[in-house]
Amino acid sequence: MYPKSQINKENIWKLEKIVESDMCAKCGTCTVICPNNILTFEGRPQLTEECLRNGHGMCFEVCPRVSSGKYQIKLREKFEKDLYYGRGSSEGQDGGAVTAFLKHLLHVKKIEGAIVVGDEYWKPVSLIVQSADDLLKTSKSKYAISTLEALKTAGEMGLEKVAIVALPCQINGLRKLQYFPYLAKHEEELGRTGKPVKIPKIEYLIGLFCTEKFDYGNMKEILEENNIKMENVEKFNVKKGKLLVYTNGEEKKIDLKKIELCAGCKMCKDFDAELADVSIGSVGSPNGYSTLIIRTKKGEEIKNALDLQKGVEVEEIEKLQGFKQKRFQKEVNRRKENDEYISFYWASDYAGVSKRADGTYFIRIRAKPAGWYTTEEIKEVADIAEKYNARIKLTNRGAYELHGINGFDIEDVVTKLNEINLVTGSEGPLVRATLACPGKENCGSGLIDTTRICEIIEDKFKERPTPYKFKIAVSGCPNKCMRPQIHDTGIAGIKFPETNENECNGCGRCSEVCKVEAINIRGDKSYTNYNICVGCGKCLNACPHKAREVKEEGFMLYIGGKAGRELVEGVSTKVKSIGEIIDYIDNVLKVYDKYADKPQRERLAATMKRIGQTKFLEEVRKGIEN
Hints:
With 626 residues, the protein is of the alpha+beta class. It contains 19 helices and 24 strands. The chain is elongated and about 115 Å long. The N terminus is likely disordered.
């Protein structure tokens, strides 16, 4: 709980820079999640009284113009892109698909309410609807700035499951809210009451195609200049650079250039709400129909609400995507030329990109399997670093990092790296690049082909999202040069010997090379103490009489290890094949996902300790058997 402040001072708010620089998208997400209700939205977000943390809280962390969080969100949602067109039976804008979908979700009780935009003389207001009749009253398009206050109201009403219809910028903020612990690395902010803001679970995000939003006051003035009263407007539409206004059955066209565009819209490049479960608009479909882009399994539910058809004119959508991209780039260039503030929120669209302490960025290249690079790749990395005035760091996991990248160059650098088959990533709560020693092909002690094992692991688990970072290491022998025992999952090659008594003459060579003194010579025979033997296999090759033979070989698998602040050795178990290793890793990840309750706070070792190592591993083995 916050203490009462005894200091009178001008209110300080960390988001002020975003708002004052016109980077703000005016999505309203920040005002929804303030647990102290000291943020309001009057044309833009405003701080109404002192914030004891000066805005260093959820309002800043969910803002889509601070960072988009898109890469991590997309990993978890596994977005697809399936295009259809269709229309609902109810009256609505451009086919009524949104209304029909919400009506269906309410009818089958997938949601208890929907957060939509209503209006007071076309001034958008955030509303909660819980019936089909209420939906029909909100089904027309509004092109002025709208917010999301009704989401908080829904929580206060006790609603538990809602759908939200929103613009691309709002969808981005709401996705960040859904995945808040993964992106912010901590739980929700607690208010003065000791509790976070209460909001319902967001079950469905329905995105609307959007080129821009307009200031309501300015829009009203322009209409009045054209002898149109806002209260007489029956419908709005936007087509070919014109605002179509319908009054008394008549259509009037107003040039959109005359209406004041929300300044933050110039910094947006998302036309079709790419983070929504389903995106809906009129572009690309016949008159009277809606275009639908289904992106997630939840979005598939709309197929039960409408009859859908293939045949969307994708070029029309791409044209407007291109329009927004060009406008975005033009605004970025203008700000750069005038030395105006840019947040580079889109840096988190890309894998392996993070901000440095000095405000520049580093880009991590996901390590190649077992850390092997060609000379050409190393030269290319050096050339890129030189071109963009970056420094190169080689990490302890065999990855290259380019440091000191200017925000303006992020996309170019990532693109150039991808062109030479170097993938960025291995950063954040996901399966990191697999660490490995040179293996039997390169090291005299190696028992297994570590590079091949790395390739198989990478093919299966590369960038797989996890509750916290998940590290895997492969050592070619029990010497454990890669420290597999202190990784989330570790692998070491093993080869245990036995004596062929018919060939052994007790010469003692095997005993001399054994580093753990597990071999004793008694008479003319050698004997192995398996309580000490680690399975390094050195004695097998050292015996001049081939009297040491393989008794057992395979892999020692370690589960639940951890380094860092606390050192934890994983639980060990023997496996015989690479297929078993893959099955174990897969099921460890599934059980970890199931039980981890503190994203970005609880490593696998902590989860296993909390629920019990025996219970955890029993469930892993049960998953393998099934």
